[in-house]
């Protein structure tokens, strides 16, 4: 495994009695695109600002390429930063904005000129070199901000919600640009967002923050397929959470019962649950299958009876809202190709089934 390039070790930040981050630790590999994902107030931006030098931690340490970082003044950390607001100098042209950090570092004129041209080419804005920021669209301004942050070859680029001010279409366009820029430059990126889709599109790995802590770190696929907690399961993708009471948790399968008394099994285990404990069974909507009662194939013990409450056609898929015998609404998503011969209609009694390997057990809290 590649050694950590940036190490965050047991960072803690408090404001009087408020704990902003609580012993956050993370290893980031060189050239990695690492995203901090979580809701507002979860600690992701505070962690980023400590790495940048804008805030000091109450405890903990950060090293970059093996060297302590926290004792280095922010202006000497040589770290690139891109914010939600573009923070371009309005009185300077695009080329002059990109040249600014190089001028501050007293780089030779020939080097500055060459670097500006290369950065403009990198972000596909060569034709905009002599324009003023006010003459650019929001997306173009953010690309200039990225070019300026990369101009002096920083070892790490920090990005704090850089696309949240853009509309959805433009945001998706810039996401593709960011992926291309990362692939071309190989710069190590720490990226903050609350948008799970954005995190999945961009990241090599994602650190999911909640209440000042990191709940899980992994690729988007790992977090989606094997969430370590109910919070991660709810924040990455859509999920159905069904209440259960454990009857056995060991052997080849964990066993439980639903509120209506129907038995249910899971091939995943949770050491926090024992027989008699209340818990939660999580199943993704696309991993559930809905059948009319006439289509039951004789394995009724693996099915749950439901009532169809709503059906929505979404082009490539059908979304079904169904209610359980205890009146909980759950979501099911199936390919639209089967909609004509499914025999399902609003108000119909139906059966929902899933593979026991796709069901995850979590403690109730």
Description:
By secondary structure, the chain is α+β, with helices and mostly antiparallel strands. It has 2 domains: 4-234, Rossmann fold (3-Layer(aba) Sandwich), CATH 3.40.50.300; 238-291 and 302-363, OB fold (Dihydrolipoamide Acetyltransferase, E2P) (Beta Barrel), CATH 2.40.50. Helix content is 23%, strand content 35%. The protein has helices spanning 44-52, 94-104, 109-122, 138-150, 168-185, 196-202, 220-225, 230-235, and strands at 4-15, 18-29, 33-37, 59-64, 67-68, 80-82, 156-160, 188-193, 205-210, 213-218, 240-250, 253-257, 263-266, 278-283, 288-292, 303-313, 317-323, 329-335, 349-354, 360-363. The strands form 4 sheets. A 6-stranded mixed sheet has the order 6-7-8-3-9-10, with helices on both faces. Helix 5 links the parallel strand 7 and strand 8. Helix 2 packs across helix 3 (109-122), helix 2 runs parallel beside helix 4 (138-150) and helix 3 (109-122) packs across helix 4. The relative contact order is 0.11. The mean pLDDT is 91.
Instruction: Assign the CATH architecture of the largest domain.
Output: 3-Layer(aba) Sandwich
SSE order, as H and E? Answer: EEEHEEEHHHEHEHEEHHEEEEEEEEEE
Rounded Rg: 25 Å
Distance between the termini: 35 Å
- Any low-confidence stretches, pLDDT <50, length ≥5? none
What class would the helix/strand composition place it in? alpha+beta
CATH level-four homologous superfamily name of the largest domain: P-loop containing nucleotide triphosphate hydrolases
Tally of DSSP helical segments:
8
């Amino acid at each position: 495994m590649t050694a950590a390039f940036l190490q965050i070790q047991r960072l803690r930040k408090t404001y009087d009695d408020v704990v902003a981050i609580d012993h956050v630790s993370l290893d980031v590999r060189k050239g990695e695109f690492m995203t901090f994902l979580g809701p507002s107030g979860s600690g992701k931006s505070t962690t980023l600002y400590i790495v940048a030098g804008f805030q000091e931690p109450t405890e903990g340490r950060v090293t970059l390429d093996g060297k302590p970082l926290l004792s280095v003044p922010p202006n000497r950390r040589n770290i690139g930063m891109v914010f939600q607001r573009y923070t371009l100098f309005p009185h300077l042209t695009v080329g002059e904005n990109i040249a600014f950090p190089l001028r501050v570092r007293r780089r030779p004129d020939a080097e500055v000129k060459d670097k500006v041209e290369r950065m403009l080419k990198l972000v596909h804005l060569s034709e905009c070199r002599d324009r003023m920021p006010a003459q650019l669209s929001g997306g173009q301004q953010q690309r200039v901000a990225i070019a300026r942050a990369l101009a002096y070859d920083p070892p790490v680029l920090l990005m704090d919600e850089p696309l949240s001010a853009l509309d959805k279409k433009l945001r998706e366009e810039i996401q593709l640009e960011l992926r291309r820029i990362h692939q071309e430059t190989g710069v190590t990126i720490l990226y903050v967002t609350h948008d799970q889709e954005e995190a999945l599109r961009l990241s090599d790995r994602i650190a999911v923050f909640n209440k000042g802590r990191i709940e899980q770190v992994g690729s988007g696929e790992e977090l989606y397929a094997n969430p370590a907690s109910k919070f991660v399961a709810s924040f990455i993708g859509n999920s159905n959470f069904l209440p259960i009471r454990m009857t056995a948790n060991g052997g080849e399968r964990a066993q439980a019962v639903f509120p209506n008394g129907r038995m249910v099994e899971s091939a995943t285990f949770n050491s926090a649950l024992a027989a008699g404990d209340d818990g939660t069974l999580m199943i993704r909507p696309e991993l559930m299958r809905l059948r009319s009662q006439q289509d039951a194939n004789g394995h009724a013990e693996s099915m749950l009876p439901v009532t169809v409450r709503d059906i929505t056609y979404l082009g490539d898929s059908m979304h079904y809202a169904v209610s359980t015998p205890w009146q909980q609404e759950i979501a099911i998503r199936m390919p639209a190709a089967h909609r004509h011969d499914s025999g399902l209609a609003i108000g119909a009694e139906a059966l929902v089934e899933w593979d026991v390997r796709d069901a995850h057990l979590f403690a109730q809290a």
